[in-house]
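User: Last request for today: this protein with pyridoxal-5'-phosphate, please.
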Amino acid sequence: MSLSEIKSRIAAAEAAANRATGSVELIAVSKVQPNERVEAVLEEGHRVFGENRVQEAAGKWPEFRERFQGVDLHLIGPLQTNKARQAMELVNAIHSVDRPKLATTLARLAQELGQCPDLFIQVNTGEEEQKAGILPADADGFIQDCRDLDLPVKGLMCIPPVDEEASLHFALLAKLADRNGLAGLSMGMSGDFEGAIALGATHVRVGSAIFGDRTYSA
Ligand SMILES: *Cc1c(COP(=O)(O)O)cnc(C)c1O
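Assistant: Here's the final one, the structure of the complex with pyridoxal-5'-phosphate:
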């Protein structure tokens, strides 16, 4: 598939949900992709990208940014506190705020740096043992704690369990965001972004449908 195809599918999903054209931000997830593929998407004029590792993002984006103006970079993967400073200096948004220790670290660094990326709180909607994210029952309290720390919380993010109906998780995330007065909803990937848009996604994170399959080297 191609970037333009994904964009037209997003536009169609926006229209079907009676939502304004352009109300959904497409984050092109470039993790692990060869530089030529990322470059091709930059050449097409796209500027919003997602990476799931700080190290990898730091390795390729400074150079791309020198050549392409206006890149908007989103960290969508787990963030260790010892990488928080580097992440904050590199990315425009972090979608994986998932625990109190990370929140307090981000707040301290925000003071020190005088800036903070837009933040999304990751919710473990499927309550999966191995998955990051705050549990749904703890979400309201954690959102309040982040606000008390003056963190710029823009929305919530989730990654539904692979073997479950994603829409149930999207609906739960939308409900949690709504009752906390949060406008941002980071949900929907290659296989389910249209369903996520129907349920209110403001940011979809699409990788393989744009770039092709990821081939991980051992
Ligand atoms: C890799 C990744 C995506 C993109 O997945 P695709 O299925 O390739 O679209 C989205 N969100 C997160 C958190 C990811 O790690």
